[in-house]
Amino acid sequence: MTEPTLSRDAAHRRVLSNNLRDAARNSTELGSDPLRQRLGFGGRWTRRHWAHASLFASLGALVAAIVPGFSNTLQAPAGAQRTTMSLSLPPLALSKQQGQTGDSWQIVSVNHGETLSHLLDRLDVPETDQQRLLEHPGLKKSLAKLKPGTELAFDMPVGADGKPAALRSFRYDRDDSHRVELSLAGEKVAEKVIERPTETRTVVLSGKVGGSLYRSARKVGLSGGAIDTLTDDIFKYDIDFNSDVGANDRFSVVVEQTWREGELINTGPVLAATFTSGGKLYSGFRFVRDGKPEYFTADGRPLKRSFIRMPIPYARITSGFGMRRHPVLGRMRGHMGVDYAAGSGTPIMAAGDARVSFVGWKGGYGRTVILDHGRGYSTLYGHMSAFGNIRAGQRIAQGTMIGRVGSTGLATGPHLHYEFRINGVHRNPLSITMPPPEPLSGVQLAAFRSQVGPALTRIAKVENIIYAGDTGTRVAAALGRRGKKG
Ligand SMILES: [Zn+2]
Question: What is the average pLDDT across 55-67?
Answer without folding.
Answer: 35
